[in-house]
Specification:
Length: 188
């Protein structure tokens, strides 16, 4: 009888140990996926930051009287580059997306600009980058959701909190980006 109890106890300890190892490893995997997803976002943002000065220079030649719009784009780009936290980065990126739309709206008033191959190529590349950035944001947010859910669920939250795993911030749309979805108003 004592041997049977001892065997059951050993089996229970083994099961608990395996659960602990599996849960810990799952947290490490989720944390690394969040890092990887954030890295994808940073790559796309860097690509966009690099394209913007070329776009502004191209537009400058055709829309010399639109310096306010161009300065707003450069200011938004610089703010996005210097943002540090996920929340600040999301806000700055949302503002930048809105200002980029104002440049594309300018092309409607300048037919020569609208027909310029450099401008069209930059517009295509920026649109492509925007699409990739949105996909990277969705990938990031799904990984953050998985990590945060695991951190909140019982009993995995005990292991997660014991080893210092932290919930991550979502890269979310805010009111600024919601406003950026509205049609751009350009006045002359």
């Amino acid at each position: 009888m004592l041997n049977a109890i001892l065997i059951i106890l050993i089996i229970l300890i083994l099961i608990a140990g395996l659960y602990f190892l599996a849960t810990y490893n799952k947290f490490v995997t989720l944390k690394n996926r969040v890092k990887e997803a954030w890295s994808d976002i940073e790559v796309q943002m860097k690509r966009r930051y690099d394209l913007i000065p070329n776009l502004v220079e191209t537009v400058k030649g055709y829309a010399k009287h639109e310096s306010g719009t161009l300065e707003a784009v450069i200011k938004a780009r610089n703010a996005a580059i210097s943002a540090n936290s996920v929340e600040d980065k999301a806000k700055a990126e949302n503002v930048l997306s809105g200002t980029l739309k104002s440049i594309f709206a300018l092309s409607e008033s300048y037919p020569n600009l609208k027909a310029n191959e450099n401008f069209l190529e930059l517009q295509r590349e920026l649109t492509d980058t925007e699409n990739k950035l949105q996909a990277a944001r969705r990938f990031y947010n799904s990984n953050v959701l998985a990590l945060n859910t695991k951190l909140e669920m019982f009993p995995s939250n005990i292991i997660g909190n014991a080893f210092g795993f932290k919930a991550q911030e979502f890269f979310k749309l805010d009111e600024t980006e919601q406003a950026a979805k509205q049609p751009v108003k350009v006045s002359f």
